[in-house]
């Protein structure tokens, strides 16, 4: 059944998300564009189910899957389906007609990949390509950093493994910005990019990133999210701590990233807005999503309070902010935001 467990402080955020200024060529004389639908799709490593938070109504539904742990999720509104990476079966599962489930339900995958994966952490989608970051050890030597990007094609109702790219750094979050794939360099404060990833990497190969830079102020970057020129990077700090989490907001991201030379550091000053402090409830913010229209950051927090889904609707001012949404979800691991 549906539950409503959003905090009352969400009302202000709902107003912001439901209404936004129209473009100059909009025919709406009121100057207001009404958002009809706004959902946050969330995975977790506690039971592997899909949690759907309706941002406008505050209702929450749970879609029970056969997975017992999952990390990496993507919603395709054009065909109304969710792609989820299962850590318990080491495969991608596709769930169709998601919007037809008006209440909590048990669902079955309509399409599944082979069990190619070993430790999936995130999903990034570009056209008919689905990329999964996997942080399992590649060479049998845990002292050497490495990871794998599993590249699938999604066509005619099937998911087929096209190729595997081996990286020379440990992986976690990944994000497409146009055709460029940005990847977190786990266990560091670095961010890497593979330019024109899908066309330049079509065979099994070990490939170094096109560019890697450090992000000042971050200890251990983990999650990332991009929307309309702004990048969000999360910092889990000491993974054993449930109170030292941070996220950074980088507007005009591509220009700022391009001006930093390979191997150099992007300074905080004049480049980044930092959100941190005891009010934030951030400990291990493992994944993020961003809505540029309302400047809202959504966070999958894995540790604080046992796991939470958080949002910060006034995020661009930075500082020790209190979350607008604070919903308990054990071992929250990944999320995807959609609005229309």
List keywords for this structure.
single chain, 340 residues, mainly beta, Methylamine Dehydrogenase, Chain H, five-stranded mixed β-sheet, 30 strands, disordered N terminus, signal
Q: Can you give the mean pLDDT?
A: 91
Number of H- or I-type helical stretches: 3
The name of the CATH superfamily reads: YVTN repeat-like/Quinoprotein amine dehydrogenase
The 3D shape can be described as: globular
CATH architecture: 7 Propeller
Number of separate structural domains? 1
Sheet with the most strands, sense and barrel status = 6 strands, mixed
* Helix content class: under 10%
Q: Using only CA atoms, what is the Rg?
A: 19 Å
CATH class assignment: Mainly Beta
- Uncertain segments are 1-32
Q: Which structural category do the helix and sheet elements fall into?
A: mainly beta
Strand runs, count: 30
| CATH fold-level label | Methylamine Dehydrogenase, Chain H
Concise account of the structure shown:
The chain is mostly beta strands. It has helices spanning 10-18, 197-200, 253-259; strands spanning 3-4, 19-21, 32-34, 38-44, 50-54, 59-64, 70-76, 81-86, 91-96, 105-106, 111-112, 120-126, 129-134, 147-155, 158-167, 171-177, 180-185, 190-194, 205-206, 211-215, 221-227, 230-235, 246-250, 265-266, 273-276, 285-291, 296-301, 308-312, 325-328, 332-339. The protein is globular.
